[in-house]
Amino acid sequence: MTRLNIQKTYKLFIGGKFPRTESGRFYSINDSKGELIANMCLSSRKDFRNAVVAARKAQSGWAEKTAFNRSQILYRLAEMLETRSKSFVDEMVLLGLSKRKVEKELEKSVDCLVYYAGWCDKYTALFSSVNPTASSHFNFSVHEPTGVVAAIAPEVSPLLGLISVIAPVITGGNSVVVLASEKLATSSISFAEVVQNSDVPGGVINILTGNLAELAPHMASHMDVNAIVTARGALINGLENEIVSNVKRNYDWSKSIDIHNPYKILDTQEVKTTWHPVQTSAASGGGY
Amino acid sequence: MEDWNLSPAPESASHIQLKKQYDLFINGTFQKPNSKKYFATINPATEEIIAEVAEANVKDVDSAMKAAAEAHKTWSKLSGAERGKYIYRIARMIQEKSREFAVIETLDGGKPIRESRDIDVPLAAAHFFYYAGWADKLDYAFPMRKPQSLGVAAQIIPWNFPLLMAAWKIAPALACGNTVVLKPAETTPLTALKLAEVIQEAGLPAGVVNIITGAGSTGAEMCAHPIPNKLAFTGSTEVGKLVYKAALNGNKKLTLELGGKAANIVFDDAAIEAAVEGIINGIYFNQGHVCCAGSRLFVQETVYDEVLAKLKKRMDMLIVGDPMDKNTDIGAINSKNQLQTIERYLKIGKEEGAEIYQPTCKLPKKGNWCPPTLFTNVAQSNRIAQEEIFGPVLAIQTFRTIEEVIDKANNTPYGLSAGVWTDKGSKIFQLTKALKAGVVWANTYNKFDPTSPFGGYKESGFGREGGIHGLEAYLKFED
């Protein structure tokens, strides 16, 4: 007697948990023969808003972790992904992708995480400055996370694309709500299992599946989202009013998937400059 | 109370050279406007007309943009070292004419001569001097990125620091190999036009810097024009959002330096006398027409009575009046329009139940004046604690714990600046780290320097001006 295999229920990943979409809607992903692979959650505005709440809650704690700690956690993500590579390959081949290409994509995905893991405790040293002011002050500028980032993964290269929008954002201490590839979405939720298994605090990475056209206006208009990065073409057409409503930062990474580049980290960073007087001997005794 | 009246010490305006009428500075020459229209610029302290300036219409904007685009072809190919030398020249000439610049700035904008002489003009010159030196060193600022100029930058600046903002915009743009079309605010166009004369005298190639005058509609035409690849705007958040929209529509790179509602936080272990000076400087500097003004004061409860008493005493000593007088602390409000805005907020504050304090001062009969003002009994939700007033109006609140004051300070859509007063180093770093603001002054306030990046978080804008970080806004990269 042949054993009936167990199919996976793909849900969303919000606040470190796997809820179903509150909308109760789904869309199907089929293989090339039209056989059902999975029913994915068709995320709603409410799902996105819930994810932003989770992301906001998690952000300050993530940013307050030491850079060394964030670095280790990103590296841990890479370890988890590496050990599960084979199952990812199997899952993605089902979608009709070539096995060789998918194996390459897994290698690149792991390497991308390792690359950004290494940047966590280095980019501020590279891009900060101590500014030699003409007055008697000590003055320095450092980068800080912009806050909650909404990200749109590319439609192709579903895993590498997803990771290449997540990694630079969280490296810098932001939290992220990312919309995965729609048609090739399965690996994104499996990646959420990797995230949950690693030491990334719940809410730092939130992953939604669904339709960009439906969700983009909500991503653009949400007043508690500080920045949007997209790897699926310019998002702005028709959404200008929404984006400017809270002066959201807006970056198009469509042309730079998997480009190893620390400057991508800076796209979701703010520069803070701190001043303090320096007492001079001439003015000593004068307080500050 | 002691008599703090000092004898008048007015600066002389006899040596300045002003024309009765100014044309548009396009392609290296002053040209009559296509609109054939001129508007008056008024001394806000006397209500006298100082000069007339041209109003640029869409055709004028177009010819300025075309001149800038044409000039970019050669300017961007000039070696960095040569570009730098032109910018150094501008810096030197501003220094040579510093007295003239300072007097005109004060006449046109109403700020105390002491501030235009000691802050605006020297900082403007220093800004050109600083960025001049970057022109041939850009590759070192952006390792492995191959920085290149963007093209034409359209720049719109406000009326609170007219010459200084022109310097903040023009200097880095030129150092990075761009050409510019700059529009000063309609109430304060004169120092920018004097700068155009300096640029002409410095022998800058025609079209590299174009300075056109006009009001909001001229600015809108600049933002909508297809030629500029870069928009830079300093002004209100409201207008900034329109500029952002234009930049998105036109796929233009953008820097926004917008409004603020900065928290200035005084702990009970602060040096109180120094803190009081910092509060005064934080809110009454330049009549409070400062986007980073410390307009929300948070005082720890235990020292509230002491701080308030000392603050009021210090306010009583401030000299409000003739901006040309070297003793003046608070000059004229920049325009009738702005005065009405401020007075509207004073009314709102009282209606909301806050308690107003203003020292009695003898104000001149003519001109736009507002005495230094503070409000106590202010709630976090009051409009005077939420909205940018852009005048000499301070809203005071109290706090007990660090956590509480961090929450209150960050509870605003703005994030430009903040101030912290405490004697404890670890507390300073706790605060400066937690405050969501682009510039944080600890035990000081309202300090600026060309080497130091300035700009905001959240709805205070994005991009930085000043320092190595200010270069990024005017370059494109291969990655």
Descriptive labels:
heterodimer; A: 288 residues; alpha/beta; Aldehyde Dehydrogenase, Chain A, domain 1; five-stranded parallel sheet; three-stranded antiparallel sheet; 10 strands; 18% strand; globular; B: 479 residues; Aldehyde Dehydrogenase, Chain A, domain 2; 2 domains; seven-stranded mixed sheet; six-stranded mixed sheet; 20 strands; 39% helix; 17% strand
| Integer-rounded radius of gyration of chain B | 22 Å
Helicity of chain B, as a percent range: 25-40%
- Calculate the mean pLDDT score of chain A and round it: 94
Low-confidence stretches of chain A: none
The count of domains of chain B is 2
The greatest interface between two protein chains, and residues involved on each side, is:
A-B, 35 and 46 residues
Structural class of chain A: alpha/beta
- Total number of helices of chain B: 15
Q: What does the oligomeric state look like here? A: heterodimer
Which range does the strand content of chain A fall in? 15-25%
Count of runs of 4 or more consecutive helical residues of chain A: 10
Number of strands of chain A: 10
Q: What is the name of the CATH superfamily of the largest domain in chain B?
A: Aldehyde Dehydrogenase, Chain A, domain 1
Number-wise, the strands of chain B total 20
User: What strand line-up does the widest sheet of chain B have?
Assistant: 14-15-16-13-12-17-18
The backbone outline of chain B, from C-alpha atoms, is globular
